[in-house]
Amino acid sequence: MKIITRFAPSPTGHLHVGNLRTAIFNYILAKRSGGEFILRLDDTDQLRSTQKFSDQIKRDLEWLGFEWDRCEKQSERIPLFESAAKHLLETGYLYECFETPEELELKRRKQLNMGRPPVYDRAALRLSPSDKESLRSKRQGHWRFKLNQSRVEWEDGVLGPLSIDAGSVSDPILIRGDGQYLYTLASVVDDADFNINYVVRGSDHVTNTATQIQLFKALGYTPPRFAHHSLLVGPSGEPLSKRMNNLSLLELKNIGFEPQAIFIFMACLGGLKHAGVVSTLEEVSEGFVLSSFGSAPTKFDPDVLRSFSQKSLSRLSLNELEKQLDEMEVPRLLQLDFWNMAKENITKRSDLGTLWRLCVDGAEPVIAPEDKDFLILCKKLLPDPPRDQKSWSVWTTSIKTETGRSGKDLFLPLRKALTGKENGPDMNKLFPLLQQIRF
Question: What's the structural domain count of the chain?
Answer without folding.
Answer: 2
